[in-house]
């Protein structure tokens, strides 16, 4: 059946001498894999359209229970002006795409996450990128996926449990309960405080990624983390 939808290219890999397999997060059907024959031939100049992070409008033949879909037509829906020439923007874009590859499975529809990613990839291109952005993105996505941390800290509950997602009275010897300093940073973050020092932003980034690791099955270390960590510290 011929379908129309928006899409976000998550990954494209070479296949045979002239083809690509592109993994695309679609608005209507979740992540789908597309076989794109001949796209890498010397006569075809559209290969760069299917690079990671590109926003598309798609017409394609949807075939259920098939490994690969095929495009009827695809075109760019937003042309980035600043992202690819700016290391901060490009690094945050790469981070969001890498993260999405681990969060969305083939054929699993998630309209809310799609809308969030689509809108924020445009926002990254248009607006100034600051050190808190990746941290704020992780918090927002945790809310979409249903494991947003509970802001229940008080004078009797000051230690954050990364498995339970809430604050508790004592740390004890448990590795899944954060120390008081890191827990205090989490509390400030959940209270919408934003004026963190550079080393504090790095701690928060690492803590939230650890939090995702405990709440997303088979969550792996992101390749963009080292560069992103330095950008977070720069602010």
What can you tell me about this protein's structure?
It contains six helices and seven strands. A hairpin with a 3-residue loop joins strand 2 and strand 3 (30-36). The chain folds into two domains: 2-78, Beta Barrel (OB fold (Dihydrolipoamide Acetyltransferase, E2P)), CATH 2.40.50; 130-234, no CATH class. The protein has helices at residues 87-103, 111-126, 133-145, 180-190, 198-215, 225-234, and strands at residues 2-15, 19-26, 30-36, 55-61, 70-78, 159-161, 166-168. The protein starts with a strand and ends with a helix. With 235 residues, it is of the alpha+beta class.
Please report the total strand number as a whole number: 7
- Please give the domain count: 2
Tally of individual helices: 6
**How far apart are the first and last residues' alpha carbons, in Å?**
48 Å
Shape: elongated
What structural class should be given to the helix and strand makeup?
alpha+beta
Question: Secondary-structure element sequence?
Answer: EEEEEHHHEEHHH
Mean pLDDT: 90
Question: How big is the Rg?
Answer: 20 Å
Quaternary structure type = single chain
* Most strands sheet: 5 strands, antiparallel
Question: Beta-sheet strand percentage?
Answer: 15-25%
Fraction of residues in helix: 25-40%
With strands numbered from the N-terminus, the spatial order across the biggest sheet is 3-2-1-4-5
Unreliable stretches: none
């Amino acid at each position: 059946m011929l379908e129309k939808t928006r899409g976000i290219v998550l990954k494209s890999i070479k296949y045979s001498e002239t083809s690509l397999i592109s993994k695309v997060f679609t608005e209507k059907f979740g992540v789908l894999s597309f076989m794109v024959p001949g796209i890498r031939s010397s006569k075809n100049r559209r290969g760069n359209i299917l690079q990671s992070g590109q926003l598309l409008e798609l017409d394609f033949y949807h075939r259920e229970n098939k490994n690969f879909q095929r495009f009827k037509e695809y075109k760019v829906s937003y042309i980035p002006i600043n992202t690819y020439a700016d290391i901060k923007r490009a690094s945050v874009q790469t981070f969001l795409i890498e993260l999405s590859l681990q969060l969305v499975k083939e054929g699993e529809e998630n309209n809310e996450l799609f809308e969030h990613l689509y809108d924020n990839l445009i926002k990254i291109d248009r607006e100034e990128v600051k050190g808190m952005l990746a941290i704020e993105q992780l918090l927002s996505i945790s809310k979409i996926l249903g494991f947003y941390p509970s802001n229940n800290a008080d004078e009797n509950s000051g230690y954050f449990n990364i498995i339970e997602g809430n604050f508790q009275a004592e740390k004890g010897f448990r590795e899944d309960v954060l120390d008081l300093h890191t827990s205090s940073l989490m509390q400030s973050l959940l209270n919408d405080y934003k004026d963190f020092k550079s080393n504090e932003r790095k701690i928060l980034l690492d803590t939230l990624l650890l939090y995702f690791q405990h709440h997303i099955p088979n969550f792996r270390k992101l390749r963009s983390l080292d560069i992103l960590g330095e950008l977070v510290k720069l602010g």
